[in-house]
Amino acid sequence: MTDQKFSTPETTGHEWDGIAEYNNPLPRWWLTSLYATIVWAFGYWILYPAWPLVSDHTRGVLGYSTRAAVLADVAATKAARATLGQSTLAVADLGEIAADPALLPLALVTGKAAFGDNCAACHGTAATGRTGYPNLQDDDWLWGGSLAAIAETIRVGIRSGHADTRAGEMPAFGRDGILRRDEVETVANYVLSLSGKAFAPALSLETGAALFSRNCAACHGEQGRGNPEMGAPNLADAVWLYGSAPKDVIATIQGGRKGVMPTWEGRLDTATIKSLAIYVHGLGGGR
């Protein structure tokens, strides 16, 4: 009886330089899997979009589109949010939303998403701002940091063209000839002295205080602590929207400032505006 283990192996009949080619067929399960994937590929090409064309692509018998599916899901989510918002956030008072353990998480999630889509481009994804764009995490607010004040600023904007827009003015004292260049530098030195940053000992703080009283105190107050009703910033703290370097303060007094924030009324619904106000207020600087 011949031992199968040591029997002569089957060959294909091909031989080269004394080396014979064995005939070792692939396992049937492997071949079956291979043929199944080929059939699957042809089926996919027929049923689904698969082949690129010069200016388009094959649509497939089913006409399926991942983009259309995503857009449908987004539309359904927006519709669900709109329904929920109209019945809850849109009709609830800001204070009620902030105090309601069910509404507050909804407002925060909605506000965070809206902030990322609409506000982060200027204020940053972390809402820490940059030169000319306020940091929303501190407690320094041009127009007030209460929930109602924040919501109103979002709604009407600043110098936005809205009928009720906020529109504080920082005149160009130097460019418009209200103050001479030396007076601009003197009052800038005094303004910086309010937060301990005076830069020119030779410039009289007394003269600067007199110039400030005549030209700036009407908006910023005699102590320079600002006025939210006019959008006038506090000049006695360490927060500077356009920079605290002497050249920056001089440039502000010389040429004025007219920052713009768009109005979101009409672009965002009432529920989203309220949610944004709740979210921004909750970043840590709300009052």
UniProtKB/TrEMBL annotation:
CC cofactor note: Binds 2 heme C groups per subunit.
Keyword Manganese appears in the UniProt entry: no
Key words of the record: Cell inner membrane, Cell membrane, Electron transport, Heme, Hydrogen ion transport, Ion transport, Iron, Membrane, Metal-binding, Oxidoreductase, Repeat, Respiratory chain, Transmembrane, Transmembrane helix, Transport
Gene3D superfamilies: 6.10.280.130, Cytochrome c-like domain
Pathway: Energy metabolism; oxidative phosphorylation
InterPro entries tied to this protein: CcoP_N, CcoP_N_sf, Cyt_c-like_dom, Cyt_c-like_dom_sf, Cyt_C_IC, Cyt_c_oxidase_cbb3_su3, Cytochrome_c_Oxidase_Subunit
NCBIfam families given in the database record: ccoP
Assembly mode: Component of the cbb3-type cytochrome c oxidase at least composed of FixN, FixO, FixQ and FixP.
Name of the protein: Cbb3-type cytochrome c oxidase subunit
Species name: Methylobacterium indicum
